[in-house]
Amino acid sequence: MLSLTGIRIWLSGAVPKEATADQAKNIKTFAITLGRQAFESGAPIVHGAHLSITKHLLAEAERHQVNTGEKAPRSPRSDGDLKRRFPQG
Questions:
Q1: What DSSP string runs through 13-58?
Q2: SS3 (DSSP) at 61
Q3: DSSP state, 83?
Q4: 44 Cβ neighbours under 8 A, 6+ residues apart
Q5: Residue 28 near residue 64 (C-beta atoms within 8 A)
Q6: pTM of the entire predicted model
Q7: CB 81 within 8 A of CB 49
Q8: Sign of the torsion angle spanned by Cα atoms 49, 73, 69, 33
Q9: Rounded to whole angstroms, what are the CA distances from 89 to 3, 44, 50, 75?
Q10: How far, in Å, CA of 12 to CA of 22, rounded?
């Protein structure tokens, strides 16, 4: 697998309220896939705090930690949520 260690992935997005069910599903799938690939490749995702995306990135960070025993790369956010949930030790 390609290593992305040291590279930050910047993400800005949300599931719009007016999105159709298919559009919302596609955005969710994108966020999950991006999170999984980034964390497995060693890259943090720098993103905003919109819950419609954040909850999927947090789930992938948790999955990564459970599956590998390693914390997901720190993903700074303006409200510090990931820092609280996945502190670097």
A1: ----TT--HHHHHHHHHHHHHHHHHHHHHT--EEE---HHHHHHHH
A2: helix
A3: H
A4: 8, 9, 38, 72, 73, 74, 75, 76
A5: no
A6: 0.73
A7: yes
A8: positive
A9: 22, 16, 26, 14
A10: 20
Q: Tell me which amino acid residue 88 is.
A: Q
Q: 32 is written with which tokens?
A: 């999950």
Q: What are 47's strand-pairing partners?
A: 11
Provide the pLDDT for residue 12: 87
Among candidates 54, 72, 64, 58, which has minimal Cα distance to 14? 54
pLDDT (tens digit, 9 = 90+) per residue, 15-74?
A: 999 999 999 999 999 999 999 999 999 888 888 768 888 888 888 888 988 999 888 876
- Per the structure block, which two tokens stand in for 51? 């819950």
